[in-house]
Amino acid sequence: MLELRSVSAGYGTFQALFDVNLDVKAGEAVGVIGPNGAGKTTLMRVISGLIRPTRGSIRMEGVDVVATPPHKIVSLGIAHVPENRRLFPQLTVDDNLKMGAFMKEARGHYAERLDVVFDLFPRLKERRHQMAGTMSGGEQQMCAIGRALMSNPKLLLLDEPSAGLAPVVVQQVFELVKRIRARGLTVLIVEQNVQQVLKVVDRAYLIEAGAIRASGTSAEMLASDTVKEAYLGV
Amino acid sequence: MMGQGRLVAWAIGLAALIALPFVYRDPYHLHILVLILIWSFAYTSWSIMGRFGLVSLGHGGFMGIGAYVMALLWNHLGVSPWIGIPVGMAAAGVLALIVGYPCFRFRITGHYFVLVTLALSGIVLQVITATRDYTGGSLGYTPNRASGNKLLALQFDDKTTWYLIALGVWLAGIVVWHLIDRSMSRYALEAISEDEDAAAAAGVNVTAEKLKITLISALMTALAGSIYVQYQMFITPDTVSGIAVSLQMVFAAIVGGLFVSLGPTVGAVITILLAETLRIGFGTKAVGWDNLVYGVLLVLFIIFLPKGILGSVLDRLKPQRKVSRAHEQEAIQIARPGT
Amino acid sequence: QEKKIKIGVVFDLTGPLAGGGSELGYIGAKIILDHFAKTGVEGYKIEAVYADAQSKPDIAINESVRLLEQEKVDMVLGFFSSAQCVPVAARVEQLKKFMWMTTCISSAVFNDKGYKYVFRPQASGDQFGMMTMDFIAQNAKAKFDKEPKDLRVAIIHEDGAYGVDVSRGNEAGAKKAGFNVVMKEGYSATAPDLSALVTKLKRAKPDVIFHTGYNPDITLLLRQAREQGLKFGALMGHGAGYGVYEKLKEGMGADATYIFNTDPISIWLANQKTMDPKLPPVIKMVGEEFDKIRPGVAIRSAHVGIGASNTYVFMSDVLPRAIKKYGGVDPDALRKAALDTDIPEGGTMLGFGVKFYGEGTPMAGQNERSFPVVIQYIDDKSSVVWPKSQSQREAVLPLPKGTTYSNQ
Amino acid sequence: MQAFLGIFDIYLLEAVINGILLGGVLALLALGLNLIFGVIDVTWICYAELVMIGMYAMYFIVQYYGLSYFIAAPFTILLVAILGAALHYLVIAPLLTAPPINQLLATGGVLFVLQSFATVAFGIDFRNLGIRLPVLAFGDMNFSYARLLSFLAALVGMIAVYLFMTRTFTGTAIRAISQDRQIMALMGVDTKRMYLITSALGGALAGLAACLLVLQYDVHPFVGLSFGPITFLICVLGGLGNFIGGFIAAFLFAEIISLGGLVSDLEWGYVLAFAFFIVMMFIRPAGLLARRR
Amino acid sequence: MLEVSGLVKRFGGFTAVNNVSFRVDQGEILGLIGPNGSGKSTIFNMLSGTLAPTSGSILFGGAEIAGLAPHRIINSGIGRTFQIPRPFRRLTIFENVALAGFYGQGRHSRARAEEAAERSLAMVGLPTDRHASVDGLGAAGLKKLELAKALATAPKLLLADESLGGLDETEMDQAADMLRNIRDELGITIIWVEHIMGVLMRVVDRVMVLDHGEKISEGLPSAVAGDPRVIEVYLGTDAETTQAAAAEARRRSGG
Ligand SMILES: Nc1ncnc2c1ncn2[C@@H]1O[C@H](COP(=O)(O)OP(=O)(O)OP(=O)(O)O)[C@@H](O)[C@H]1O
Ligand SMILES: Nc1ncnc2c1ncn2[C@@H]1O[C@H](COP(=O)(O)OP(=O)(O)OP(=O)(O)O)[C@@H](O)[C@H]1O
Ligand SMILES: [Mg+2]
Ligand SMILES: [Mg+2]
């Protein structure tokens, strides 16, 4: 479904990604792990078009993502839950969700999608008229995921969804990832919480200093020495 | 942290500036120079708070108060400007505190602060006009000519004297700028301008720091006003109050460069010379074109040299800094939840 | 070395005052200066340097300083706004240069200043105010059938230098005539709304309104007055906006008729029979030149004539005398020549004479013989109705029944 | 006592109603500015000057081309909308990432440019459309038809803009854009287009105001000075971006000017309005309708 | 040293903190946990003066500080970090901390502030180089900077809000050690808000749990980790690991 070939990217003169190759197949859940500043977020941004790669190609179901204008990339079925959530703090929860369904294709199904999201996150329904900026971290994370789901994406990019959440909620989030998958969505997820994430994904990539260091199934990764020494600091 | 080299450069520059009126005596050019110095001082005064994101459009009001209080005291009560100027400054200071305190206490910042201060200068303008029986209203106000001691009355016919006075005041402004720049207050104010809560959590008394800088800025601006009226021997509400003057201050400061000490001065030199040259250049042959071109140039300056002329030049000279992540931070800041 | 006099001419060509009459004054002055430049005066070439004060006092100061000190002009001439004349006159005096004001009507320009080098042939603002009051006072019994103490007058004015000065004259005149002043109030010419003022006028029920203003505020006031149903017996305007009939007409249509205005007489209306015979051809010339610049204007504004006539007095009377009698165009020669001026009534295009108050008098430099006249606009024509000596027709007073504002 | 009661007469009522009508004019002006200033958080100090250009457009279309008022109006609205879009494209867009003060200044420069452009292009004359609308009379009280029109336009405009902003996807996106510009692309929003739409809309509202103001005021290059500052204050008093607040603030201001002018001098009415603004800023810093923190 | 009673905070009609009372003893590390939105940060905001309480009393060292201006509270000896780092980007790293050292200690001398800055930076392991820019810091660095700023104010009580969020596991362990060092070496009392139970339970002496703005449990880590209500609203399936961590901590402190 998603194919990255020798993708390099950076900020100004600073290069953050080096020749990254990555594949996500339809229906899969894939994890990306790696230490701070490894370039995980950059990877997500490059996929969703927030930054442009300096080299390499990205294809979503055969369509050239790099050639698509950033605001059209959602229409390809890619939804990105950014790091730090990035909600619209002065808009209500409702309006934030509405923004998620901004695309022409999604507007028609607005009501349906809203039901789906409220079904997943009853808390959001309770707080639908609250300003997003005044909600707690966990509530905001739900809202951010909900917003991304509003566009009815095929591929969901999650950037550290568990950061700053209470343990139960972290479990819920991972639970959720499973449920989202069960609905047929493909998920690409960046996480610090390695133990947890490896439980929900099929495969994972280890990224370090902007380059893929290792990849494999969850079990392989857990067992891998590279992962252990490079990342778990064992 | 002024290096040896810079100190020498400053000393030479200053010596040249002091010597100038004794060598070069064209009266009109001296007149323009005096105006440039006085306005440079006013703009510097503005920038002392403006550089910390405290964008005031009320400084015309402070200037007006400094000018009018001094002139009124002189004309009606015969109080010497030597006393009148401090009184005028004090009056402006009190006003600054009266408006500033609640503003800062209740966290009125950004656009809101700009507009509250705009209203302030509006009020000063209206009050000066409405109390025309004392202030001369829109006809303007002229300090009475001194019959006795010129020094006591701070009235001089000689442009060189005025040039030196203006130079002194301007220099004082630059010194104050540097003192603040090197003080801990600068850290505090930079911090406040980015994030008031975080500054407070570092122990900064946000309201007091802002009041302090506003007070200094208002006092200096009032001084600029009284020097201006003494030099021109005339003042109208339009010269000092209203949005036009305040905008002019902001313009010059930004065009010159807000974050460098000589920025407002460069701004004054450029805006005043530009306005003069254009006006004289177009003359009465193409009426109105001078302001049109002036406006277009200002817009271009701001678009293409956002750090101001001097600021951009200095940036060129300095070694390239690491690419800034400022654009990203801006968004993250906005998205900050209500912690 | 060639003999010439260099004259710095300062008017407002941009900004709000330009449309308020300054530009028209400039045109009048320029026509005369160009005229004399063709022939020269007593062997002196005439060179005029023009500057635009942009309706700002600071720029007026800067430009005057520049003209005097940089362009080295021998004198400055012109100025429309009193707020500019006050500081410029002080500077000129300080520099001991010569200044000839064509407009700047505020009495504050001269009051007790003791100027030596500053002259103004023009009537002062309080004279305007006194004139209209005098006119009403002389007509109160006949036209309103009221004793002066029963006549209700309202004085309103824009709060700039000009309006304030005229209103002081109004007030003094009303006191002298013994009128019942029911209202006196200033307002800002840029106020977006004058309905409160109109409401107050309605409440005050004045027989006569004395108004001083510029163009946008006059139209706004009268439009709101009409919309709110303000009624009165007469409206007395005092120059500035009221001097530009075109604009009154554009803004008010037929309602502009019967409005009074006081100004120096329009040179095209002045009684040419009592005038110095060499003047009518000049008036004709000014008219023709003006029509070239501004074709198709129904009533040529009095401002043009003011600029022209007052400049003409200088060029035809003061300057020749300075050169011939005092040997040049230096400030002192010009000053002595100006003080010698003694033109009888009828000796200027504006009808009045010229003689300046001398040193030591409170208004030193002011023309003691100038007076404005009261005119009335009737059916797109303006006619002098006061003073009697200049009068061209009987005033229509109060407003006839059936007109928009009539309180009959 | 008598004197005190004397104030409560028909004239007071007239002043109150005239205040409301003036409020309509101010509200109309505040509407577009609120959209630009408050909602997308872009400063247009030169807003009143756009209105001025619109008034000139009306004047010339009606006077010179002899078209009827109602044909001229849509043209004018379109023209000012284009002007608004151009302002964004040429001046604001390059400054979107610059500090807000630079935007403020750049548009302040445009203010000079538009004023002097009008001086150069149209001259310094005061111009008047010369359309005289009938007067509405109720007994001893009379009201301006033109003002009533402005009032209605402001009301309808406000409701329409409010519904647009809250009910439509585009409206919501416009509100979102000032809060996190970068992330808009993730929503599938073309930010450039969105800014252009909003700027054109803001321009169109300025054009609408121009069409109605030209019925009441002379046009001249400096007409913006009469309205500009007060419009800003109204937007802030109402709470930036709060349309209903802006609407109410316009009426409060207008009443203060109107009643203040009635009981005291007109000039003091304005002083009072400004002072009221400053006091309110302290009582309700986030605008009239904002909940207290 | 800190005694809080009946603390309430309402936002509009919503009660974020409802009648919470607790005390903290000198030299203790108190863990403050609870679901998202349960009011932890809000309590911190009130303790540090960023928000004024709706009602209730906060006695710090015997003096009432509820509702005081933040700088006065900071000067009286409370230091705080923010959950989401709020560095001053226009200042260098060193200036950030020196600022806190100067104002946080009641504006003594510049020299003293700079000294405090150097000490705090060294303590958290950031470079003491005077020109290093904040832009160079990653997530972990920013968290450290927050801590250094708080330390530079020479607090007696440190409020640490989610100092671990966004860190990888190695860094988390380092951070936890750091907090313990701060207490052990500088004698600073700490209240610590954290969601990473495995780390928190190992460090704290006592835990307090909030839910919906109310205190639902308080006590030793092992006891709290076993509290069914806490498990239900907060720990979920993490309860076991949490209990294990708490047990390990007890073993260590016991032994
Ligand atoms: N907007 C930006 N401008 C410049 N450099 C950036 C920017 N964003 C990230 N970087 C740099 O790019 C590198 C990779 O950053 P990225 O955010 O992708 O890392 P990450 O793996 O997501 O880390 P974390 O776990 O902290 O989220 C880092 O060195 C970072 O400093
Ligand atoms: N300014 C505010 N206005 C309205 N509600 C607010 C405000 N600040 C916080 N809240 C609400 O108060 C509740 C408590 O928030 P708080 O930030 O204290 O939670 P928390 O316990 O720190 O959560 P987390 O662990 O997610 O950081 C939340 O429901 C939040 O929505
Ligand atoms: Mg990341
Ligand atoms: Mg929190």
TrEMBL record, chain A:
Q: Which Gene3D superfamilies match?
A: P-loop containing nucleotide triphosphate hydrolases
**GN (gene name):** livF
Keywords, in A-Z order: Amino-acid transport, ATP-binding, Nucleotide-binding, Transport
Is-annotated flag, keyword Transport? yes
- Species source reads Bradyrhizobium japonicum
Task: Give the family this protein belongs to, as stated in its UniProt record.
Answer: Belongs to the ABC transporter superfamily.
Q: Which GO terms describe its biological process?
A: L-amino acid transport
Occurrences of domain ABC transporter (ranges): 2-234
> What name does UniProt use for this protein?
Branched-chain amino acid ABC transporter ATP-binding protein
One Pfam family, please name it.
ABC_tran
The protein's superkingdom reads Bacteria
| UniProt cross-references to InterPro entries, sorted A to Z | AAA+_ATPase (IPR003593), ABC_transporter-like_ATP-bd (IPR003439), BCAA_Transport_ATP-bd_LivF (IPR052156), P-loop_NTPase (IPR027417)
Known CDD domains for this protein?
Answer: ABC_TM1139_LivF_branched
Q: Name one GO molecular function term.
A: ATP binding
Protein purpose: Involved in beta-(1-->2)glucan export. Transmembrane domains (TMD) form a pore in the inner membrane and the ATP-binding domain (NBD) is responsible for energy generation.
Automatic annotation (TrEMBL), chain B:
Under the heading Pfam families, the entry gives: BPD_transp_2
Primary residence: membrane
Annotated transmembrane regions: 7-24, 30-48, 60-77, 83-104, 111-129, 161-180, 213-231, 251-275, 287-305
User: Which keywords fit this entry according to its UniProt record?
Assistant: Cell membrane, Membrane, Transmembrane, Transmembrane helix
CDD domains hit by this protein? TM_PBP1_LivM_like
Per the record, the coiled-coil ranges are none
Q: Where in the cell is it found?
A: Cell membrane
State the annotated membrane topology for this chain: Multi-pass membrane protein
List the protein's name. Answer: Branched-chain amino acid ABC transporter permease
UniProtKB/TrEMBL annotation, chain D:
Record keyword Transmembrane helix present = yes
Coiled-coil portions:
none
Keyword field: Amino-acid transport, Cell membrane, Membrane, Transmembrane, Transmembrane helix, Transport
Query: Where does this one sit in the cell?
Result: Cell membrane
Its membrane topology = Multi-pass membrane protein
**Domain of life the protein comes from:** Bacteria
Q: Show the stretches that span the lipid bilayer.
A: 15-37, 44-62, 68-92, 104-124, 144-165, 194-215, 221-240, 247-264, 270-290
Query: Does the record's keyword annotation contain Transport?
Result: yes
| PANTHER family recorded | AMINO ACID ABC TRANSPORTER PERMEASE PROTEIN (PTHR11795:SF445), BRANCHED-CHAIN AMINO ACID TRANSPORT SYSTEM PERMEASE PROTEIN LIVH (PTHR11795)
Instruction: Report what the protein is called.
Output: Branched-chain amino acid ABC transporter permease
Originating organism: Bradyrhizobium barranii
Please spell out the taxonomic lineage of the organism that makes this protein: Bacteria, Pseudomonadati, Pseudomonadota, Alphaproteobacteria, Hyphomicrobiales
From TrEMBL, chain E:
Q: Name one GO molecular function term.
A: ATP binding
- Any single GO CC term annotated in Swiss-Prot or TrEMBL for this entry: plasma membrane
Key words, A-Z: ATP-binding, Nucleotide-binding, Transport
Tagged with keyword Nucleus: no
- Superkingdom of this entry's organism? Bacteria
The residue ranges of the ABC transporter domain are 2-237
Function description: Involved in beta-(1-->2)glucan export. Transmembrane domains (TMD) form a pore in the inner membrane and the ATP-binding domain (NBD) is responsible for energy generation.
Its protein name is ABC transporter ATP-binding protein
